[in-house]
Amino acid sequence: LSSSNVEQVAFIPFEVGTATGANIVGNRLYVTSWKNFSIYDVSNPLAPRLISTTPFGFKFENENVATNGKILLFSESLPQDLLHIYDLEDERSPSEIAALPKAGDHTTSCLLNCAYGWGSGGTVTDLRKPTAPKIIGNWTGSGPGRGGHDVTEIAPGVVFTSTVPVQLFDARRSVTKPTLLATGDNTDFAHSVQWPRGGKDKFALVGGETNANTRCDEGSATFDIMDTTGWRKTKTLRTVDRYVYKNGTYLDGKPAVNGLGCSPHWFDTHPTWVDGGLVAVGSYEHGVRFLSVHSKTGKMTEQGWFLPLSETGTSAAYWMTPEIVYAVDYARGLDVLRYTGRLRSAGDERPAARPKPQQQPAPAPAPAPAPATAALPVRALVPARSLRSR
């Protein structure tokens, strides 16, 4: 089921039952599950082509796929506590080149073009020699945030954390003792975060998560917009709107009941986003919600929706082109959607930016892991969208 401005144009079954995370680097899509990971050629977004599948038995869970197209990280928190590193030079037959004990945080993200890894639980790994990774510290002591679920590098060495509260760090001088730049006002669990345009945008986006609640209620997670205006002075990000999930009749675009949860999950802003615009939000049984954010107020308006009608719903949504969205379904596979609706809220006259072609990131200098004595000044935070981390 979908709104009139959303069309399912293709469906690709893969990793059925446990597909949890994905990442797009150039024209390659990397998908991980609890039992394998796969690489797809997405040169034609309407017809993804499988290149390889690498089985590895049961490993949980690696929601957020970290890769620079040369190496791939798989963070295993169960049944073992390991960070696996794979060499992708031969993408038809990737090979595991290392497994680091006690580094299997719930998620691990690449920093500085995968020179380092930051785990959601704080583990910092040195990956400059991928065949011999090592733990070099823990970043969590650098700020008040707790309950970490994920970290997002919004610009080289500048990190936005899914914590309570959310935090912005500068790790360019030290990856083990980063400088705290700002915090949010959230008091509920943060599952995933984005600060578009490399931290130069007016708004930051924060999604919560509430699992196993069969009905939407006051305790259900929301999708939040934070106003970042003046953050360098106030050191604070302020919530200005929340998208509240509700149950319905299916025909109205809302599920009657939930299984995995009434909740947002992984999301992605439209390529034309500038100080607001359109965001596609993977939302479990609520499918994909297309929300516009007003450039002046940060208030959200729902512009469209897609309901997969599966047992578990949509894990994540990724813009492949200005019209095509990939929606990863836990139980079924990949829904390829075409969106033809509004890109901005009614009355929001700010022109949308033209999408920029993606380029491969240039290798970033690897900082010394020693503690910093002073932080580098944060000037313009340059976007690093060529590597689309989730």
Task: Characterize the structure shown.
There is one protein chain. The strands form 6 sheets. The chain has an 8-stranded mixed β-sheet with strand order 15-16-17-18-22-21-20-19. With 390 residues, the protein is mainly beta. The protein is globular. The two termini are 26 Å apart. Helix content is 2%, strand content 42%. The chain has 2 helices and 30 strands.
Question: Which terms would index this structure?
Answer:
390 residues; mainly beta; eight-stranded mixed sheet; five-stranded antiparallel sheet; 2 helices; 2% helix
Residues in helices, as a percent range: under 10%
Strand segment tally: 30
Low-confidence stretches: 358-390
* Number of helices, where a helix is a run of at least 4 consecutive DSSP H or I residues: 2
Write the SSE topology.
Layout: E1 6-12, E2 21-25, E3 28-32, E4 36-41, E5 49-55, E6 60-61, E7 66-67, E8 71-78, E9 82-87, E10 95-101, E11 108-111, E12 116-119, E13 123-126, E14 134-138, E15 146-155, E16 158-164, E17 167-170, E18 179-184, E19 192-194, H1 196-199, E20 203-207, E21 222-227, H2 231-234, E22 236-244, E23 267-269, E24 277-282, E25 288-293, E26 300-306, E27 314-319, E28 324-329, E29 333-339, E30 387-388
Parallel strand pairs: 18-22
Antiparallel strand pairs: 1-29, 2-3, 2-30, 3-4, 4-5, 6-8, 7-8, 8-9, 9-10, 11-12, 12-13, 13-14, 15-16, 16-17, 17-18, 19-20, 20-21, 21-22, 23-24, 24-25, 25-26, 27-28, 28-29
